[in-house]
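Thread amino acids onto this structure.
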């Protein structure tokens, strides 16, 4: 879709209406966000753990995804490092969300799960996800 300068929306809410007019409902919109989060977490970035955190505010599409968790640095708090990486990735590569909070939960079956809370920008919609490891899928 292309817009001439005189057609370009004057406000953020007008732009949002134009961009989301093809979405049939809120559920479809949220499903697109969830799918993108799965794509982010299932894609490995070319950067190392350290490089990723150093570039955290300047990541580009070439850095898309998350670093390989198997190459995490020794020392420090492993859970906090993983949560920080996931938060950085989501804030950089899913522009429709804000107020991201990540918690790493280990269950009795020893599976690793991320509990992700976020707010959809410019709305009062909250997202509450639980992601399982191996291939990250939303429960």
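Threaded sequence (139 positions):
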């Amino acid at each position: 879709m292309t817009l001439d300068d005189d057609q370009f929306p004057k406000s953020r809410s007008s732009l949002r209406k134009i961009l989301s007019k093809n979405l049939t409902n809120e559920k479809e919109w949220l499903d697109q966000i969830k799918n993108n989060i799965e794509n982010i977490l299932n894609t490995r970035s070319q950067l190392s753990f350290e490089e990723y955190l150093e570039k955290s505010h300047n990541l580009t599409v070439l850095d898309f995804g998350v670093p390989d968790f198997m190459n995490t640095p020794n020392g420090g708090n492993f859970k906090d490092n993983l949560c920080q990486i996931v938060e950085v990735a989501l804030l950089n590569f899913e522009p429709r969300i804000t107020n991201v909070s990540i918690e790493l939960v280990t269950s009795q079956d020893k599976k690793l799960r991320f509990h992700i809370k976020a707010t959809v920008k410019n709305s009062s919609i909250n997202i509450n996800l639980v992601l399982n490891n191996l291939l990250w899928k939303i429960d």
